[in-house]
Amino acid sequence: MAKLETTYLGLKLKNPIVVGSSGLTNSVEKIKKLRDAGAGAVVLKSLFEEQINHDVNRAIHSGQGLDYPEALDYMKNYSRDNSVAEYLKLISEAKSAVDIPVIASINCYSDTEWIDFALQIEKAGADAIELNLFVLNTDKNSAADSYEGLYYSIAKAVSEELKIPVVMKLGLYFSNLVSVVNKLSVSGAKGVVLFNRFYEPDIDINTLSITAAEVFSSPADIRRSLRWVAIVSDKVKNIEVAASTGIHDGDAVIKQLLAGARVTQVCSSVYKNGPEVITRMVKKLEEWMDEKKFKTIDEFRGLMSYKKIQNPVLYERAQFMRYFSKFE
């Protein structure tokens, strides 16, 4: 019978299916249900620096008697500490309640303010920390290296202070993703998640207003990550790759493992179908491994990665010549 156990960031997982950072993981009760459904690990809902600052400003503007500096400083520190304390409590309680790895997540854009918070996360018992970082570069005069440098500096600053593994959750907006991941590994990151799913704007043509585009991924979105999982996992050996986006069933889990992913992160599919979809993913993986006579995941992980396939150029092809030429 197939053995689904694997490791990620040095942590032991009963299977490679990890529930990604989201509202699905913002309470102990939800995490228990995910564990019971078969999740190998969970990434807690991110605590956003932007949200903390928003809460601080809201408290200040709604407060009374804040017309002197001491009161203002007190309110800022109280609001921030309260947000952090709630998150640390979630980490501690989750670690006590479940026997699967609990990975913390923070969404940050500064490389200094969050080091103390990261240390508190480690002390609270988190098994690893995922840095959910995204900077939208709209300055036409800025150089790519200055934009990318922020990722390296944050990875380095946090990694140097922590004993637990640091993971960078990335978007796909890089001119040379392989180089970026390689430099992140040198900066101390032990893993990368490919790819983050961001808020994206849409336009309501009836109300002439900006709205949010579709929040959830679709099965077709696996195309955004599969190519890069296959390439990065081969070209950058000293960092682990977690696949994310478009993983909605067991077939998608298998594809990402074949491409070279260490683990697969699921989110939208669980929102749409409930925790039981994880159970079905685990069953599919197990049945497929038995059918193919694979006893462990390591026997087939990366079997279809960039260097393992006969023609690696297939992962580099960007045009549809073969598919659309008959329609000329």
TrEMBL record:
Q: Name one GO molecular function term.
A: dihydroorotate dehydrogenase activity
Q: Name one GO biological process term.
A: 'de novo' UMP biosynthetic process
A GO term from the CC aspect: cytoplasm
Cofactor names from the entry are:
FMN
Keyword set for this entry?
A: Flavoprotein, FMN, Oxidoreductase, Pyrimidine biosynthesis
Q: Which residues form the Dihydroorotate dehydrogenase catalytic domain?
A: 4-289
Where exactly are the transmembrane stretches of this chain? Answer: none
Q: Which Pfam families match?
A: DHO_dh
- Is Oxidoreductase included in the keywords of this UniProt record? yes
| Coiled-coil zones | none
Q: Which InterPro entries does UniProt cross-reference here?
A: Aldolase_TIM, DHO_dehydrogenase, Dihydroorotate_DH_1_2, Dihydroorotate_DH_cat
Which pathway or pathways does this protein act in?
Pyrimidine metabolism; UMP biosynthesis via de novo pathway
Q: What is this protein called?
A: Dihydroorotate dehydrogenase (Fumarate)
